[in-house]
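Why does residue order matter? Because the sequence determines the fold. Keep that principle in mind as you read this record.
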Amino acid sequence: MATRRSKRLTGPLALGIQLRPVNAAAAAALLTGWQASLKLAASGFTVLGTLLSGTSPLSTRQLSLVNLLTDMFPAMAVAVTPSEEGTREGSEAADGAPAGTAALGSPLTRQIRQRGVITGLGATTAWLIGSLTPGSARRTSTMALCGVVGAQLTQTLAGREHSPLVLATTLGSAAVLVGIVQTPLLSHFFGCAPLGPVAWTGVGAAVAVAAMSPWALDTAERLLPDALARLRSDFRTAT
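Structure:
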């Protein structure tokens, strides 16, 4: 009797993940904004932490770990997964420009600025909580590291939380981070220290701040131009 050979699906299809074509310009803009915003946040946070404490809050190995956990699988997953909020960007490019180029220019600058500020807020919040609670400097640095990665991963899910690929890579990166921090040998190699319940609660609070920041930033960006215009008008009237 002839036996039937069943075909097994491998790769993303085995997980029920449907890969849709994404405009190359939009994907390149997203990855460029991702890298630039991370460097902006890391630089600003390092300068602030150094001014306040006299030492850099993150070591070179910790910064390398941030890049490893946020720039590989999560970033690539986001690049090949269209945002639910921006699925019409490619077909609605203005002035007859090629689809996807609308993601460049001012939108890219705004993305870099917003992601950098949100990541910096997450890192600074975690670092301040670590500094104000009992513990070593290495514990505080570890909390800052978790705040940076947590803020980045939170933004990874924005508009793509229903994508199995993005969800899997984001949760996987978070699990790897926790495993590295809580494993003594790996933790020591990266200049970290295993965290207790209080420290993880502080990290959770920092990630929550990062998750709520986009709404606050959007409101500030809408109100700030009007406020500046009123100040200019009042100043001209007074003079």
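The mean pLDDT is 75.
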